[in-house]
Specification:
Radius of gyration: 27 Å
Strand content: over 45%
Number of helices: 3
Shape: globular
Largest sheet: 40 strands, mixed
Structural class: mainly beta
Distance between the termini: 40 Å
Length: about 750
């Protein structure tokens, strides 16, 4: 199900009504958004997106299309506790507010204090236009992640995106999910009309946690976030969640010792493991208990589906694999539905140490559990001859670490938690995940090593320590290399990153080129977009890829691809304002809804960087020291134009300290950290908010563009910069950037 996380375009005095002007007839198309009865209205004026969360006294940025910007009037009302239609309340009770800045593509105004934090609404009036309404701080649920319980005590429960079983722990992710700092109710309504109001807890404005009732009947439910008062005026848009039947799996228990194993560190247990795993497969799955001991295996093992290896603890049960040249593709592998728990694993030369099927398809991969593991692998262990060590190092450097993963996983329903892992190169590679939890781990990157989340969605990365082990180690990336051409819905919170000074030196970066189209549109009837030329589709899967208007009429709007054929693209939803001959369209892999909250960075080239496409990302309440700061760069790749839309940097802390800067070929000198926004023509940054950040010492805040249209609707609001001279905005874009310090 698609979710857009942006303000709905709502026009007219009352719900379902539109006022006709004497000069324009507004063409209205009510279009179903998923199954939630949300309408998108095509009109001459529109609001595309509203920044948030915003506190009273801070500045609201709204992007859209306002054909009469010099004559706009604005009314604002607090609607959180209002009864009745919120548009009528805004019209009747709203107070006049003078905008700080209005252009044809944006409006910015200070949110008045009308009784503290809350959900607000505003009404825009222009000559010859119907009124346009929008809401500020309205909760938006971008996706949900559930940990459904398992009936087998040895198996960790299932991870689901936008579905769950009764009794599950449900996490909601998005923005503005609190009311005045407090959590609201999570409301579930069945198709028969029965409603459950569930209390929730929160950490910040971007996550809610609740527990589903154990008596929920399987079926489709409508989920909303509602204020504690229970009113609907300030409730989130409904989102469909599927409740499925609980897992009823019951697995047999086997003991490895019954198959002739010896945990004395000398006996070769390969045959015993293979016999036990064959028996487990014949039973249709089992939990294979491995008692305390040190188990040597001379050959790799493959775990059948529905089989789980469980030791006593990483301090008592260990598996040991030898140094081999060449190393196998993986020392421990499984296709899907397998796991390891409470074990230590040691090995010499390796490619992957633990690997699933990496196809990313639900029928052949996924459903893997790795819990409480201690892993140490080194391709340079022991007294290697210089020639052998040099050859291994050369192979590793040529591959840039690819194939030398400590752990690689793919597919739906993945869990990696409470593990301490260190291998020769890349600590973790996750491809094509749909519902994944990476929690409370110690991830250590080795030579030319990093971590990578590639074409993933519905991922929770929480409470981990990620560190570079040595001067060749770097950080990691969230990427779109692969299929389908999208990565979305990733929550990264309460992690610590340090000592990432090798290679590109990025603690976190996004990446992924490969555009299909850049140019004008011929027409856009409803959800079909007809392009001037045939995009470079190739044989790739473009479902979920980004379609954005980055110049001309309707600039700032985006949708995703539902289907494609030749010059025609079926959009996930019609544009609110149809493009015309001046509109420039880009089609690139989507990177959508990344939230980085309360993370800590020490010693890196850059803490968080959006390199290329970024849509509705939030970087909030993070801190860094000698870690470069936070970058957002709209790019032109060789084969694609990658924009940045509706990105917010809020309440971050750049502490004193110099660092090795990020730069090509290590050429950049040492220097202070920065919040840096830039665009490379013909790409663009549209709807950028930099608010309430603290920049200590010589840290800088910079907004750059090589083109006057490279930054549209930028807001720099209430940042605390120790050195007042370290605020740099290019003159070419000064008309599009409001500085309100």
């Amino acid at each position: 199900m698609e979710e857009y996380g942006r303000t709905r375009v709502e026009t007219g005095e009352n719900p379902g009504s539109v006022q006709l002007s004497s000069m324009r007839l507004l063409a209205i198309a009510a279009i179903a958004w998923c199954t939630c009865c949300i309408r998108i209205v095509q009109a001459d004026s529109a609001v595309f997106w509203v920044s948030g969360p915003v506190r009273p006294g801070e500045t609201v940025l709204a992007t859209g299309y306002f054909p009469e910007p010099q004559q706009i009037s604005l009314k604002v009302a607090n609607i959180e506790h209002a009864a009745g239609d919120w548009r009528s309340v805004t019209s009747a009770r709203g107070i006049r507010v003078r905008p700080l800045k209005v252009t044809e593509t944006s409006i910015m105004f200070v949110l008045p204090d009308l009784g503290g934090d809350g959900v607000f609404a505003f009404r825009l009036d222009q000559p010859h236009e119907a009124p346009v309404y929008a809401r500020v701080n309205l909760p938006e649920v971008w996706w949900t992640l559930a940990e459904s319980p398992s009936t087998d005590p040895e198996i960790q429960g299932r991870v689901d995106v936008d579905s769950a079983s009764a009794g599950a722990r449900l996490r909601l992710f998005g923005r503005c999910l609190t009311y005045g700092g407090g959590a609201g109710y999570v409301s579930l309504t069945s198709q028969s009309g029965k409603t459950f109001n569930l209390k929730s807890t929160n950490q910040g404005s971007y996550e809610l946690t609740t527990t589903l009732p154990r008596d929920l009947t399987p079926g489709r439910y409508s989920l909303e976030v509602r204020p504690p008062t229970g009113g609907s005026t300030a409730a989130s848009a409904p989102r469909v969640i599927q409740i499925h039947a609980a897992d009823e799996t019951h697995l047999a228990n086997l003991n490895l010792m019954e198959f002739g194993a010896k945990g004395d560190s000398h006996f070769d247990n390969t045959s015993a493991f293979k016999s036990a795993l064959m028996k487990a497969a014949a039973l249709g799955g089992a939990v294979l208990k491995i008692p305390a001991g040190y188990y040597f295996l001379s050959q790799p093992i493959e775990i059948p589906p529905n089989v789980y290896l469980v030791g006593e603890s990483p301090n008592r049960t260990a598996l040991y694999f030898p140094d081999a040249d060449p190393a196998p593709p993986a020392w421990v592998s499984g296709q899907h539905h397998f796991g390891l728990e409470n074990l230590a694993i040691f090995c010499g030369n390796h490619n992957a140490i633990i690997s699933s099927n990496m196809g990313g398809k639900p029928d052949v991969s996924g459903h893997s559990r790795l819990r409480n593991l201690f892993i140490r692998g080194s391709s340079f262990r022991g007294h290697l001859a210089p020639e052998l060590a040099g050859r291994r190092l050369m192979q590793l450097m040529k591959s840039a670490g690819l194939g030398y993963e400590t752990i690689r996983l793919s597919g739906p329903d993945l869990i990696l938690e409470d593990c301490d892992i260190l291998g020769t190169s890349r600590s973790l590679y996750i491809y094509g995940a749909h519902g994944a939890i990476v929690r409370r781990n110690k991830l250590r990157n080795g030579i030319a090593g990093w971590y990578n989340y590639n074409v993933a969605d519905g991922v929770l990365i929480e409470d981990n320590t990620i560190r570079g082990e040595g001067v060749l180690a770097t950080g990691g990336s969230y990427s779109t290399w692969g299929e389908p051409k999208r990565s979305r819905d990733i929550y990264t919170a309460n992690n610590t990153y340090s000592d990432m000074i090798g290679f590109d030196r990025e603690a976190i970066t996004s990446d992924g080129g490969g555009g299909a189209y850049f140019g004008p549109a011929l027409q856009s009837p409803r959800q079909t977009l007809l392009l001037q030329d045939v995009p470079k589709w190739g044989k790739d899967d473009w479902a979920g890829a980004l379609v954005a208007i980055i110049a001309g009429h309707g600039v700032g709007q985006w949708r995703t691809i539902k289907s494609w054929s030749g010059q025609e693209v079926e959009l996930s939803e019609a544009f609110g304002i149809a493009p015309d001959a001046t509109s420039i369209i880009t089609i690139v892999p989507a990177q959508l809804h990344y939230i980085f909250y309360h993370n800590h960075f020490r010693s890196a080239g850059v803490a968080i960087q959006f390199y290329g496409t970024a849509v509705e990302h939030i970087v909030a309440d993070n801190d860094e020291s000698s870690a470069g700061g936070f970058y957002a760069v709209a790019m032109r790749y060789a084969d694609g134009v990658a924009p940045q839309l509706n990105v917010q940097f809020l309440d971050n802390h750049l502490l004193e300290g110099w660092n090795y800067h990020f730069g090509p070929n290590g050429a950049a000198p040492a220097g202070p950290s920065s919040i840096r926004v830039a665009s490379v023509p013909p790409s663009a940054v549209i709807g950028m908010v930099i608010r309430n950040n603290e920049l200590q010492g010589e840290s800088t805040l910079e907004v750059h563009s090589q083109s006057p249209t490279g930054v549209i609707a930028g807001l720099v609001d209430k940042n605390r910069i120790s050195n007042g001279k370290n605020l740099h905005i290019d003159r070419s874009i000064s008309d599009e950037v409001l500085i309100n310090q």
